[in-house]
Amino acid sequence: MKKYCDYCDGWIEYKYIVTFSGHRATCKKGPEREEWLKKVKKANKINGLNKITRRPYKLKCKRCSKKFVVEMTEYAFRNKKEPYREYCSYKCSNSHIQTSEQNEIRRRKSTKYGYEIRVCKFCEKNFKVKQNRKNVFCSKSCAGSFAGLTFLEGNHISESTIQWFSYKDIKVRGTYELRTCYILDAMKEVKDITNWEYTNDRFQYIDVKGNKKRYIVDFKIFNDKIEYIEVKGRIVDNDKNKWKAVRDAGHILKVWTLDKIIEYERKYGILTIWACSTTR
Q1: What is the distance between the alpha carbons of residues 108 and 106, in angstroms, rounded to a whole number?
Q2: Residue 153 Rama label (left phi>0; alpha psi -120 to 50; beta)
Q3: Which of 20, 85, 210, 215 is least surrounded by CB atoms within 10 angstroms?
Q4: CA-to-CA distance for 254 and 175, rounded, in angstroms?
Q5: What is the pLDDT tens value at each position of the chain, 280 positions in all?
Q6: Inside any domain, residue 109
Q7: How buried is 171 (Cβ within 10 angstroms: 0-12 exposed, 13-18 middle, 19+ buried)?
């Protein structure tokens, strides 16, 4: 489409009418051009500072004092509220400058409290810790082991009521695992198995949400073939994925529930306070 402009005495091609209206407002020979230029200049400046046109500025790195060039507007350079680059590189910007005040505060904090010896709540080993700390475990592994959840008699047990038991030189979690220790020793005594251990063998598996995780089996039995035993009070969806990962790795895995534990206790004549109180 074309339309005639009587200011510049020419035909203007346009697709939309706004294009022609814009030409009329800014036409070099039009009476409205000077007023338009004043508005543009005023809009381009704030407090007399140009905020549109960029030009190079030479700056000095706050870290290494090296000079570098940054292109910015006059408004950004003069106005402190508009941040701009103050470092020549990422290396300088990421290296934190330690002031004398910060070092003094850090020194006071480090010497304010002394050290004391505490006993780990899980492994019962002595460890050194500052007096203002609330640490009751010697390491993250002990804290994680203590905070783990277990199932006792098929019911969910919170971490505050976890029961740990000592059997010979090992610690087991829950009465099911403790009863299994007595059964395995009885089996070893009559030579049904060669040996057993409370294992720390880990297997990688994919949980129900599709995440990769690691799974630790409870017991390992040594015989003609190595077998694993998992003691469970209640079976959930993730358990099936764990057991599948062990079996897919070519290992034999047996799951002992409460019924299986009672069956073996009766078979080997094991009498414990739990076996005596269980009615079936």
Answers
A1: 6
A2: left
A3: 210
A4: 18
A5: 888 888 888 888 888 888 888 777 778 788 777 787 777 766 666 666 677 678 898 989 988 889 999 888 877 787 765 667 888 888 888 887 777 888 888 877 777 778 889 998 888 889 999 888 888 888 887 887 676 533 333 334 444 455 788 898 888 988 899 999 999 999 999 999 999 999 989 999 998 888 888 889 999 999 888 999 999 988 888 899 999 999 999 999 999 999 999 999 989 888 765 555 554 4
A6: no
A7: middle
Range of the domain at 140: 115-146
Same domain for 176 and 132: no
pTM higher than 0.70 for the full model? no
Same domain assignment for residues 181 and 131: no
Beta-bridged to residue 127, according to DSSP, are: 118
* Cα–Cα distance, 56 to 26 (Å, whole number): 30
Q: Which two tokens stand for residue 1?
A: 């489409």
Q: Which of 218, 184, 188 is nearest to 201 (CA)?
A: 218
Map tokens 């969910």 to a residue: 156
- Residues 167, 244, single domain; the answer is yes
- Do residues 131 and 183 both lie within one domain? no
Count of structural domains, the chain: 4
Smallest CA-to-CA distance from 203 within 218, 187, 217 is with 217
Same domain, 159 and 142: no
Tokens of 227: 């077998």
Q: CA triplet 214, 218, 221: central angle to 5 degrees? A: 120
- CB atoms under 10 Å from CB of 242, counted, come to 22
Whether residue 10 is contained in a domain is answered as yes
